[in-house]
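Appendix B. Raw example, untouched.
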Amino acid sequence: MDFLSRRSIRKYKDIPVEKEKLDEILKTAIVAPTGHNAKGCEFIVFEKPEDVRKLIGVKSMGAVFLETAPAGIAVVCNTDKAKTWIEDSSVAAYTIILKAHDLGLSTCWLQLKERFGKDNRPSEEIFREMTNLPENYNVLCFIAIGYGDEERPSYTDKDVDLSKVHYNKF
């Protein structure tokens, strides 16, 4: 897979994402690495554009791209199982993003942790109410998935700042 060609896409074609592709994405997310092999991550799949659009109000800004997204996956984690739920959820989320790219789909991450909705309530609280998420689960993000309707160039070597890499000490 060409990792440098993966870009966040915020506009999607009006084409449903095939269930088989969503299933392949979920298989890889389920086996994503977790701290202490806790496997506390779970996933809420939104298969219909009208259900994805309901999430627009979960954040006060930055969620308008959900208007055209045909599907998406929320990454949630059982905090009774995983003390490293933020890290575990982040690995699962990026696994979803990379597998979707591998399958020819586009994605964009919508951060929900420590964000606020239009009514100034925490995004996590709004999401919890919308999805009946139990109290012992936290949500990290929602990942919009679909067939991209915009072109973004691949990253090049000019975009890779190797001065951020340190060996054996800072």
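End of appendix B.
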